[in-house]
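User: Um, what's this?
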Amino acid sequence: MISIDILLAFIAASALLAFAPGPDNIFVLTQSALSGRKAGIMVTLGLCTGLIAHTVAVAAGVAAIFQVSAVAFTALKAVGAAYLLYLAWGAFRAGAEDIEAGESNNLSAFTLFRRGIIMNITNPKVAIFFLAFLPQFTDPSAGNVSLQIVSLGAVFMAVAFVCFSLIAILSGFLSQLLRRSPKAQIILNRIAGTVFVALAIKLASSER
């Protein structure tokens, strides 16, 4: 059983990490501004769902592979970078008519949800982060460590969902303004594409 003091410290640390600028919250921000609050929340659901895989991996000890295997780390970050470049390509190709017609409206809730999952699962830094972060708040004398890790992972997901949803709600207000200006929408798409490229480069150049 995790003590209240440790749990509160973990929640505070998780909230700070969720709001700190990074690939996930930038992804939510750009998608929400382009597609609206609901789209941002669906992406958030996907990102948080992806955390389940990382939590289970850490609990089972599988995530340790990414610390000792350069091949596994390189392969996974290559997939993540490729996916970000794919999103950038789509953003750069989007024109005024596509946006006005509601490019985001043509994306189903499942598609947005899937984007979030892929974005999260294909980032090996998340697996390594969880491997380094979660065990710090466990106590072997308090019971099964794997169960504690799963519990902490669930708490982290809840905190991340709340924080990312706030980001989505606030950035969603931009979409109302952007719908009145096709030119502004095109510019934001270009900015989003640039952000995706930058994130892809950062991910591809990251080291274990």
